Each structure stands twice: as C-alpha cells, then as structure tokens.
Amino acid sequence: MPPRLLPAPADAATRAAVFPRVRWMGSKHKLLPHLAQAFADIAPADGPGTALDAFSGSGVVSYLLKHQGWAVHSNDYLGFPGVVASAGVVNHDTRLDADDVARILGPAADDRDFVRRTFTGVYFTPDDLEFLDSAWSHIDRMQGGGRAVAIAALCLAAARKQPRGVFTLTGDLSRYDDGRRDLRLSLREHFAERVADYNAAVFAGPRDCEVSSLEIGALEPRRYDLVYLDPPYAPPADDNDYTKRFHFLEGLSRYWVGDTIMWDTKSRKLPKRVTKFSSRRTIEEAFREVFKQFHDSPLVLSYSSNALPDLDTLVGLLREAKDDVEVRRVPHTYHYGTHRTAVRRQVDEYLFLAR
C-alpha cells in the first residue's frame, strides 16, 4: 500500500482555520500553522495514522488533524468539547438544511421551560431564554451528526451573545456593551448564522474519527502514532477552572441532564472538576503520570512560558519517558476577552516534540 501523503502544513492550517471559533481559554487558532508543521514532522514515514487530541477544548486542533489525514480520537473531560468535535470531526457529511433550521426556529415541540426558570435575570433576555428551551424541544428528537451540529451551533450562539464569552458575568451586562454586532443579534439570529458556520466546516475526512469525554487517566491504554497534549496551563496566580468560565455551555450541550446545579451561586454554576492539572502543587505529578501513560507514543505538547512548571522542569519530566525531546518556541499573544481593554499577554508558546 502506498504511503498516505500529508497535505502541506500551510494548506492544512488554512483549511482548519474555518472551524467555528469559540472564545476558549488557550484556543490554538493562531497557532495552527506551527502545530500543522509539528504534526507533519512527527508523523510516521508511511503517513498519518492514529492521533489522540487528549485535551481537545475548542476542537480546532482535532479538526486540523482530520484535515491532515489522521484518524482522530478527540477527548476532553468536559462534555461540551465532545459535542463540538462530534459536529466537525466525527461528522463527515451531515449538515442541517433550511427545513431543519426552520423547524428549530419555529414553535416549540413541547412545553419545557427549564432554561427560563433557571436563568431568568442571570443570562440573556426572556425571548432568548425561551428560544433555548424551544430549540432543545426539537434537538431532543434529533440523532447523529445533525444533532451534534444543532447543539454545537446553539452553544456557539450563546457564547457569541455573552459579553466577553464567559459565564462568570451575570445580571445587567450593559456596561460591557462595546457595540459589537454579536451583542445586538438575538439568539435565534445567532443560531441560524452559527449553523451556517458549522455546515461550512463539515467535510469528508479520509479516516474514521471518535470522541470521548473522560479524564485523561481514564482513557483506555493503547498506542497512538501521535498524542497531542494541551492541558490546562497552571498559572502563577488565578486559576485554570474551565467549568467556572464555561459552565453554561457545558450544561446547555446536554440540557443540564444529570447535572447538579449549585443553586446558591448567582451564575448557577456546575461543580468544579478538580484534576491534578488544577493546582500548582500537583501539576508536576500530573505531567509525569501522563508522560508515563503515553510513553510508547510520539508526543507533541503545547505549553506557555507564563505557566508552571517552567521549561527546564518540563524537559526533565519528558526525558524521564522519552529519549528525544525537541523544543520549539513560538512568540504568541494571548488575547482573552472581547472588550477593548481585554488582557493581551506576550509570551512564548512552547511546542515540545518527544519521540
């Protein structure tokens, strides 16, 4: 069998950049060209094989890997990233047509009102909250790739409508109104546009892909031809709690089925998911365990120069499991938030290639 040829890294990165963008902490959209090159450099001689995106987050790196021809296993301990990956990575051919969109935008299929009862005065207008209930009354009757596209579009609509893209802000948010169009659109209007975004991203990849929502240590042991690691960065200050910032998207992705809402919080948070990557005290142990877990797979690790542990420590931990460790530095500006004074941090993004 002839080798499977990788597309040029620049071409794959350009195609992957169309993936609908969620304002996700640590999103790798701007780093796609560098990641595409790293994945090409570490690919087996006979072409791309199996790849694990172990902390898939926004889904864009899994989508890049699919464009490069890998059989992608997209995993994240949160459920929302799994829905996004199901819509754009696992799904090869299903799009929502005009009738699908019209049905979801139309009258409700039942009288559910959970979102209205739970989040009135917390997020969005009454009409927007009513739409979320109504949309889910139809989505509950859908299956497969179409269901995934609908949920992903609904969640992206909510993320775009929410000032700064995070759900730590509640109540009257007019003080955050900077005139952006996203804040003017209703969730119904957003949904129709976001469906178009996901429809445009759907393509038939050459390999079957899969999704899981597990803690990384719970993944079934197996060898991959590439393991990409982009864990939560442990900052010297603050925290890396994704649930705190994106709990609404996490709940909305499954209509809060099975969730325990923290009713004593104004934002109606979900409980924090604590892992060893959550704390400066346990971060080194977390890395050591993951490197050991995938010791027989080639690794690419993304990490930031403004996070803990530092470069030398990470190299030392990698060399406990790998003989060949290469470090690439990519100057990068993290821009978190949508407001004019959003924090911009100039850092180096480290890409570790370990064979």
TrEMBL record:
The keyword Ion transport does not apply. InterPro entries: DNA_methylase_N6_adenine_CS, MeTrfase_D12, SAM-dependent_MTases_sf. Keywords: Methyltransferase, S-adenosyl-L-methionine, Transferase. One of its GO terms (molecular function) is nucleic acid binding. It holds the Pfam family MethyltransfD12. GO terms for biological process: DNA restriction-modification system; methylation. SUPFAM superfamilies: S-adenosyl-L-methionine-dependent methyltransferases. The keyword Zinc does not apply. It comes from the Bacteria. Its EC number is 2.1.1.72. It catalyses: a 2'-deoxyadenosine in DNA + S-adenosyl-L-methionine = an N(6)-methyl-2'-deoxyadenosine in DNA + S-adenosyl-L-homocysteine + H(+). This is site-specific DNA-methyltransferase (adenine-specific). It comes from Nocardioides dokdonensis FR1436.
